[in-house]
Predict the structure.
Amino acid sequence: MSQTTLPSWIGALGRAMEIGILTLDSRGDLSFSNDAARQLFGCATEDELRARWPPVRRKLRAEGALALRRDRATERREVRTDLAWRRDAVRRRLRLEVHALEEDAAGHLVVVKDRDLVDALETNLRDASKMRALARLFVSVAHDLKAPLNAIFLNLELLRRALETGEAAPAAERDKRSRILATVRSEIERLGRMLGEVLRLPSLPQETHRPFDVARVLKEAVLLLHPMARDQNVTVNLAIAAGPIRVRGHRDRLKQALINLLLNALEAMPEGGRLDVDAAARGGAAEIRIRDTGPGIPREVLDRIWTLHFTTRKSGSGIGLHVARSVVEALGGRIAVESVAGAGACFVITLPLAAGGT
């Protein structure tokens, strides 16, 4: 690449990207500037900018920018520096990015940007990223609220029927009422925590990772959805190893992930079936299996079920499985699915045990 060919392609690049472009010779003197660079420095002509260049050259030399070489692999290839520039009554903050040219084109390339515009762009990018995160959060929260609210409604209906029997109910019936009330209270408290996280925005909710018994969380999730299973003539078989199975993470989020998977299984059996749920510590990890006897998942969509908004049901949102996998992976675990057409599906969650997990 020859020195004489630099201005043509560099000038075109600068115009396309709306940034200032300068080239310096081997001494650090200005050899080329595009229109954008001259405007950023507040100079009408290249000669005017060249006359005002010496203090900039001294700053670049002091910061080692002019010592950059392409043929020295151990040295830096780029130096960034901010320059407070004043021209007449106008003050500007400029960002200079200095790059060494190729070996056969001794000198340096300097990219000039308005630092205030750079800061504004970075702020906009951060805000856009946060808005995308907030949009995903609100969609997930709306989805997560729907399932427990439906379950609460069913439990309250059962409680209403139980209360109609009067105060002279036998002990077993009173115990049943207590369990229903405890389930409803637990879910209302959990929903309150979820809404509290949303109300603390714009700061995104902080994860609280603590050890907890995943077996107990699984029992709570199954108990919550038991009325729905009964209404659909689905037999639930719960098999959990004796003793706690302790993992570390966000308890409420894992509970919601389990609810999503259980709901997914129940929705696959609207006319009845069997739901097998088991949990145990195996090979130094907590393993949870949720198996249904529904129609199974078609092989051609098996790899897509985790994708946000993908669903094979007309009334589905395509959120539940995506959220479940995100939660499990955030806890350092894995989730997989085994399915045979016509023979149901089995979701398997593996989570690392907390220290002293069993």
